[in-house]
Design a protein that fits this description.
There is one protein chain. This protein is an alpha+beta fold. It has a single domain, classed as 2-Layer Sandwich (Uridine Diphospho-n-acetylenolpyruvylglucosamine Reductase, domain 3). About 45% of the residues lie in helices and about 20% in strands. It contains three helices and five strands. Strands 1-2-5-4-3 form a five-stranded antiparallel beta sheet. The longest helix is centred in the first third of the chain and has 19 residues. The protein is globular, with a radius of gyration of 13 Å.
Amino acid sequence: MLRDDADALDALAARSYAALEASEDGYRVAVRLEGLEELPRAVRTRVLRMAAVKAGSPPGTLAAVHVDAVDRLVTAWHGQRHVDLPGGLRADRRSGKLLFGPA
């Protein structure tokens, strides 16, 4: 049953990521915040992980602590700095988007 739940969440996250992905010059991946903020945490954090991995963060070193820090850029935004990610990447919040690119 847990595998079925995880598969369903992964499928929802993949559809959400496809709907929210945007373009932004100079960044490998951009995700629109509008719509991302309203997703349930279980789906939203999967979308953030997908974005980081697509931008080049190695999946084996991208940990929950990294995804949680990026999630705070979405859910607890108070003008904080970027988040450094494994693979020499960083996540920034700017102009209604979450941007993933080189540090």
